[in-house]
Design goal:
Layout: E1 2-3, H1 7-17, E2 30-31, H2 34-44, E3 48-52, H3 60-67, E4 73-81, E5 87-90, E6 95-97, H4 98-109, E7 120-123, H5 134-161, H6 173-204, H7 222-250, E8 258-265, E9 268-273, E10 278-280, E11 283-286, E12 291-297, E13 302-305, E14 312-315, E15 324-328, E16 334-340, E17 352-358, H8 360-372, H9 378-388, E18 414-416, E19 422-424, H10 427-435, H11 459-471
Parallel strand pairs: 1-2, 1-3, 3-4, 8-12, 11-17
Antiparallel strand pairs: 4-5, 4-7, 5-6, 8-9, 9-10, 12-15, 13-14, 13-16, 16-17, 18-19
Helix pairs in contact: 5-6, 6-7, 9-11, 10-11
């Protein structure tokens, strides 16, 4: 029986069927409405119903439900006939040549099960159904969900066995690690969701031996697309909310913090304790006491980072207007390292400084020792200032090549400049090179010394540095 309100559809399908041997295929009815189809179905009991796929009158869900009402096993095909009757498109949108349609019909007349065109078999008599039932869908959903859940749990357990983060050594690290933990669990779930569904599909829906048919064509799922849009959006908003909360917790101020000025230079760190009158090349902090770091740079952008503290902040050039603040409350005694987390030049990788978290008594003892360690010898003081102000990051004291001229044997020598002139290295030339680094550049070197390096140095400190350089002649 042919069900279609379009005369051309019936005519085109008749043209295909007329190519069959006489009496091989018998058309028992042409139905233009659902009521006519039901009447022909009751009267003629056809073996096969061909429904016009493109016919709006024959709603597919309704026709399939009503055609089989009260009937036994009935086979229904949804078919769209191509122009000129040369091809047909079956319900899964596969294009078939007319010869394939004939071959399919031949198998029906021979009592064989057709395999090269999809046939929807509906059984209201208790037999098996070829329609994917709600029960089958639910079974696959449950099995896939269980597999994803198992993979998620295994992934989380695996991540917990790996030390992904370094030691947690500050109070501010606690909320940050909580946020990391949430993100790791989300990553584990997404990994399990993707890999789990892939594995389930590969195993359960794999092509069976001897099956050379095409898979069912799926146009898409609006419900799935909406879900897959809203779920990531909700996840991102949730992570953003948690991130804002964590950021707020790291910024909670202490009423009386230990204040420090942290200065980054290519390629060294300097730590100044204005409340204590101490400048050092290593960072020492008392445990369980908040430190307020004010970060700046003498040249390019640097980034202060101690992984165990979890916190990171840029040190920017530009003076007091560009100072950035960072609050750290160490909670674990130990030795750590400051790293520069911003690519800042040739020796970026060596821009390290030790960090010591001490008991309050040990910290106070260090403060007393530093205050009492000021030497009367300008050479010793100059050696200390050169380390604190990062001079030794570019200049060597043993004759080895460096970014800048070596200081060994420099004092009293004749230096050739970029403009071709020569100059004697005396106290005046050295002072000028410290105060105005770009005034005279030695031949073979670049002008990379910070222009304001002397901004934080006193006249006495400059004289001490010159004395130290002179001692290396």
């Amino acid at each position: 029986m042919i069900a279609s309100s379009h005369p051309l559809f019936a005519k085109g399908l008749r043209g295909l069927l007329q190519k069959r041997p006489q009496g091989d295929v018998i058309i028992v009815g042409l139905a233009a409405t659902i009521e006519e189809a039901l009447s022909a179905l009751r009267e003629h009991r056809p073996d096969l119903v061909i429904v016009d796929y493109d016919d709006k009158i024959f709603n597919r869900d309704e026709i399939l439900a009503r055609l089989v009402e009260g009937e036994g096993r009935l086979r229904v095909v949804l078919l769209s006939l191509g122009a000129g009757g040369d091809e047909a498109i079956v319900y899964d949108r596969r294009t078939m040549a007319a010869s394939q349609i004939e071959d399919w019909l031949e198998k029906w007349t021979d009592g064989q099960e057709p395999s090269d065109l999809p046939v929807i078999a509906i059984d209201n008599g208790g037999g098996a159904s070829a329609y994917p039932t709600r029960r089958k869908h639910m079974k696959h959903t449950i099995f896939a969900a269980v597999l994803v859940a198992i993979l998620t749990i295994l992934s989380i357990i695996g991540l917990e066995q790996i030390q992904l983060l370094p030691e947690q050594a500050s109070v501010q690290a606690e909320p940050i690690d909580f946020l990391f933990d949430v993100e790791f669990k989300i990553i584990a779930f997404l990994f399990a969701l993707i890999v789990g569904l892939m594995l389930y599909s590969i195993i359960v829906f794999r092509r069976k031996p001897g099956d050379d048919t095409d898979a069912e064509h799926v146009e898409g799922s609006t419900r799935l697309e909406v879900l897959w849009t809203l779920a990531p959006l909700a996840t991102v908003l949730y992570i953003s909310f948690l991130g804002a909360q964590v950021l707020g917790e790291t910024l909670i101020p202490d009423p009386q913090p230990l204040e420090l000025r942290v200065v980054g230079s290519q390629w060294s760190w300097r730590f100044e304790y204005p409340q204590l009158g101490i400048t050092a090349t290593e960072l020492r902090l008392p445990v369980n006491k908040q430190a307020l770091l004010r970060l700046t740079s003498t040249d390019v952008i640097h980034s202060f980072w101690v992984p165990e503290f979890r916190l990171k902040q840029d040190a920017l050039p530009g003076g007091d207007d560009m100072v950035r603040e960072l609050r750290i409350t160490p909670k674990t005694l130990g030795e750590y390292k400051v790293r520069c987390a911003e690519l800042c030049g040739l020796h970026h990788a060596t821009m390290l400084a030790p960090v010591f978290v001490l008991e309050q008594e040990e910290f106070q003892a260090w403060v007393d020792e530093e205050r009492a360690a000021v030497s009367d010898d300008p050479v010793e003081r100059g050696q200390k200032w050169t380390a604190q102000f990062g001079c030794l990051a570019c200049h060597t004291t043993d004759g080895a090549p460096g970014v800048g001229p070596t200081w060994q044997g420099l004092f009293g020598s004749q230096e050739r400049l970029q403009d071709g002139t020569t100059v004697e290295v005396d106290p005046g030339y050295l002072r000028e090179s410290i105060v105005e680094p770009g005034a005279k550049i030695t031949e073979g070197f670049q002008n990379i010394m910070p222009a304001d390096i002397a901004r934080d140095m006193t006249d006495e400190q400059i004289e001490d540095v010159i004395a130290f350089i002179e001692s290396l002649k």
